[in-house]
Amino acid sequence: MDSDRTSPGVGQADPIDTLPPGFRWGVATSSYQIEGAVAEDGRTPSIWDTFCRVPGAVAGGDTGDVACDHYHRMPDDVGLVADLGLDTYRFSVAWPRVQPGGRGPANPAGLAFYDRLVDELLGRGIDPWVTLYHWDLPQELEDAGGWPARDTAYRFADYAELVVDALGDRVDTWTTLNEPWCSAMLGYVEGVHAPGRRNLGDGIAAAHHLLLGHGLAVPRLRAGAGRPIEVGITVNLATADPATDTSLDRDAARAADGLGNRLYLDPLIHGRYPEDVVADLAAQGVRIPVEDGDLPVIAAPIDVLGVNFYFGQLFSGVDEQGRDRDADGAPVRRVVRRDLPRTAMDWEIVPESFTDLLVRLGRDYPGVPLVITENGAAFDDRPDADGFVADDDRVAYLAEHLRAVARARLAGADVRGYFAWSLLDNFEWAYGYEKRFGIVRVDYDTQRRTPKRSALWYRDTVRRVRGQR
Q: Which residues are substrate-binding (predicted)?
């Protein structure tokens, strides 16, 4: 790693040290990626259990059947969080574990796992941060139409009420959805995530109904808790900048920003869909299935906006041959690769774009506190004979991005916390177990956990920043 990417510069103060005393420090995971135990205690299949059985859908034919076996090793994993000195653990609840089939009453055995998890966290002085949906839709609901079907939004609100009834007395912060863009676009348009559909109309309907489900759930969470709680949603955002100052490149960047960012942020915060995105979709014969009253529901006031950031991109409105229309006559929107360091996911490392994004959120969507609910990187980790990983590239990535957060705060962005993705190496969706994001290494043969150098760096950084107060 280039030395000027791993430190703030000789003789310069580290921006990380400007993070305030009340700043949250955490790690994040998700249910299907770590829990395993997919057929235990009444859990029924999710769309990911089904998708993993589709030949060629997941690298190596991998599944989440065992994953990190967190379902059986949960107390020890909470101990890892405590050992790192972190104050918050963000996890997701598996819908088909709590409400098998996606309808009807709660499954007591499934809820009991999360009840024990919350108590274990609180007993260690760690705040539980619940995400209700991290992509594991009950298969029965997909069979009934999935997220493109409006009814799924109502089923989600019912499920949210079941969970808050059980945990609302102890959990202070609730996230409805994780990354609705991924659920809608990767799952229903590009087909590379469960359930594997490829239809733009389905994807746009899914996006709207995901947001509607969020809005329907918000008041039910507040009522079900019976006490003040914080409710929010997590969106994955990326910068979309024009490769040049030509009108074609600027329009390509506008369109990418619209479909990737503003399609979600505008209805959530401003109660409307962006007009240019609606027009872009109409040109492709697609409409957002908004019904009367939907937008005020979606714009229910939230207390926190979770931001997941991994990369930024440049866009061009012409292809490599200089054409501005593709074979179907649609405008070209091409990602332009830059000569930049990349992660094992082939994602460009652009921490300065992270600062730009956070400052832009404070400007365009003011009044909602931000928490970085995911940020991290996969690299080709190589353990030594003892299983230890000297992942200096990941240390550099985390340091760069924490500095980007600190710089955004200094520029006025109201960022109140940072959660590294992820606590553990885990099932990385269509990549199976090939890609490792964890700050703790998991030996999938033995399930042995070994904190990597990045975990130790993160622990020491948190201690250092807190110790300066």
A: 33, 134, 178, 310, 421, 428-429
Residue type, position 419, single letter: F
- Distance CA(276)–CA(268), nearest Å, equals 17
Report how far Cα 203 is from the mean position of its chain's Cα atoms.
18
User: What residues are annotated to the active site?
Assistant: 179, 374
Q: Is 310 annotated as a binding residue?
A: yes
How far CA 251 is from CA of 181, 204, 254, 313, 434, in Å, comes to: 21, 20, 5, 14, 36
The answer to whether the Cα torsion of 41, 47, 53, 56 is positive or negative is: negative
Burial class (CB in 10 A: 0-12, 13-18, 19+), 104: exposed
Give the number of C-alpha atoms closer than 13 A to the C-alpha of residue 302, restricted to the C-beta side: 34
- The sign of the CA dihedral 382, 385, 387, 391 is negative
Closest residue by Cα to residue 37 from 9, 8, 64, 74:
64
Q: 130: helix, coil or strand?
A: strand
User: Is residue 421 part of an annotated ligand binding site?
Assistant: yes
Structure tokens that stand for 351 in this block: 């921490």
CATH dotted code for 3-260+303-467: 3.20.20.80
Q: For the chain, count helices (H), then strands (E).
A: 17, 13
- CA–CA distance, 236 with 135 (Å, rounded to integer): 13
Q: Is 428 annotated as a binding residue?
A: yes
C-alpha–C-alpha distance, residues 316 and 248, integer Å: 7
Q: Give the whole-angstrom CA distance, residue 62 versus residue 465.
A: 40
Complete DSSP assignment for 134-167: SS--BHHHHHTT-TTSTHHHHHHHHHHHHHHHHH
CA-nearest of 26, 82, 34 to 447 is: 34
Q: H or E segment at 91?
A: strand 88-92
Q: Which residue has the tokens 């991994």?
A: 310
Residues 231-276: pLDDT tens digits? 999 999 999 999 999 999 999 999 999 999 999 999 999 999 999 9
pTM, full prediction: 0.97
Q: Which two tokens stand for residue 246?
A: 């030509």
The mean per-residue pLDDT over the stretch 386-395 comes to 98
At 319, which amino acid appears? Answer: D
Cα–Cα distance measured from residue 456 to residue 458, given in angstroms and rounded to the nearest whole number = 5
- Is 429 labeled as ligand-binding? yes
CA distance 216 to 151: 12
**Alpha helix segments (H runs only) across 54-182:** 70-83, 95-98, 108-123, 139-143, 151-167, 180-181
Q: pLDDT tens across 157-177, in order?
A: 999 999 999 999 999 999 999
Q: What is the spatial distance between Cα 7 and Cα 2, in angstroms, rounded to a whole number? A: 9
